[in-house]
Amino acid sequence: MNTKLENILNETLKTLNYDYETKIVKSNIDGVDFQCDDAFKLAKIYHKAPFIIAEEIVNKLKENKNFKEYFKEVNVAKPGFINIITSDKLINNTLKELMKKDKLGIKRENNKIVLDYGGPNIAKPLHVGHLRTAIIGQAINNILKFKGNTTISDVHLGDIGAQMGQVIYGIIHDFPNKKYEDIEFDLDYLNVTYPKISGLCKENEKIKEQCAEITKKLQNKDKNYQILWKKICDLSIKDIKRIYDYLDVHFDYWYGESDAYKYFDEMMEYLDKKSCVKIDDGAKVIDVKEDDDKIEIPPCIIQKSDGAYLYATSDLGTIWQRKKDFNPDEIIYVVDARQSMHFTQVFRASKKTNIYNGKLTFCGYGTVNGEDNKPFKTRTGGALKLEDLIKEVKEEFVNLREENKSMQDEDLDKIVNAIIKFADLQNDYTKNYIFDIKKFSEVNGKTGPYILYTYLRISKLLTQNNGKLSENIYNEIDRTLRLKLLEVTSIIEAAAKERKPHLIANYLYELSVIDNNFYQTNHMSSLEENIKNDYNIILEYNNLVIKKLLELLGIHIPKAM
RNA sequence: GUCCCAGUAGCUCAGCUGGAUAGAGCAUCGCCCUUCUAAGGCGAGAGUCCGGGGUUCGAAUCCCUGCUGGGACGCCA
Question: Could you give the number of structural domains in chain A?
Answer without folding.
Answer: 2
